[in-house]
Design goal:
The protein is built from five helices and nine strands, in the order H-E-E-E-E-H-E-E-H-H-H-E-E-E. Strands 1, 2, 3, 4, 5, 6, 7, 8 and 9 form a nine-stranded antiparallel β-sheet that branches. The chain has one domain: Electron Transport, Fmn-binding Protein, Chain A (Pnp Oxidase, Chain A, Roll), CATH 2.30.110.10. Helix 4 packs across helix 5. Bound molecules: flavin mononucleotide. The site of flavin mononucleotide has 15 residues, from strand 2, strand 4 and helix 2.
Length: about 220
């Protein structure tokens, strides 16, 4: 059996050239995301969100990207969770899209702010009933004595909001938008001579500069 720690995969011959990338890194990101979906990446919109808490301790977890536009990257969560508390203390974060099967990753850094209530309401309303019940019953990241206790809470919420009755969005649940300052596109190449192009916001923030980094 192959030792998974001793593998040396060759990352093939795709390249990422300054002349290939879009001037707007959001457009470039959207094009890679669409390609990841087309080429069968499992959960292509899954991203690892890294935060720093009030004591300076880093933490990371996966969340799903739910919207992307000129203003930034949007995800939804429980704002009273561990990540929510970290973002309240330090409203900055990193997002990492690890598209291993494409030999690509994108990493994004920027400031994070809560989305408008109307935006959270619209997304909440689009979620399946079961997810809305779970989001209401579960106080994310808080300890609970047992699975049975959690299921009992879900059952209570289901009695209050049977199928067909609107489950209101809990005040603690909502979206965040990360406004990117830096976006790095990484394309794996042969012999570890990978391509790395970094976009950084310049001037008044509407323009971007591009730089190549050594692999
Ligand atoms: C593929 C995947 C997608 C996830 N998507 C979300 C999400 O969109 N929002 C969310 O709050 N948690 C999501 N989670 C769960 C988080 O990784 C995490 O367990 C949870 O948000 C609590 O994190 P925290 O205690 O650091 O705040 C996802 C987990 C996985 C594996």
């Amino acid at each position: 059996m192959t030792d998974p720690l001793a593998r040396h995969t060759d990352y093939g011959n795709k390249s990422l050239d300054e002349s290939d990338v879009a001037h707007d890194p959001i457009a470039q990101f959207s094009s890679w995301l669409a390609e990841a979906a087309d080429r069968g990446v499992y959960e292509p919109n899954a991203m690892v969100l890294g935060t720093v808490d009030a004591d300076g301790a880093p933490s990371s977890r996966t969340v799903l990207l739910r919207a992307i536009d000129a203003d930034g990257f949007v995800f939804y969560t429980d704002r009273s969770s561990r990540k929510g508390r970290a973002l309240a203390a330090h409203p900055v974060a990193t997002l990492l899209f690890p598209w291993y099967t494409l030999h690509r990753q994108v990493s994004v850094t920027g400031e994070v702010s809560p989305v408008e209530d109307a935006e959270s309401d619209a997304y909440w309303a689009s979620r399946p009933q079961g997810s809305r019940v779970a989001g209401t019953a579960s106080h994310q990241s808080q300890p609970i004595g047992s699975r049975a206790e959690l299921e009992a809470r879900v059952a209570e919420v289901e009695v209050e909001y049977p199928e067909g009755r609107d489950v209101p969005r809990p005040g603690r649940w909502g979206g965040y938008r990360l406004r990117p300052r830096r976006i790095e596109f990484w394309q794996g190449r042969t012999s570890r001579l990978h391509d790395r192009l970094v976009f950084t916001r310049a001037g008044d923030g509407t323009e971007w500069t591009v730089e190549r980094l050594q692999p």
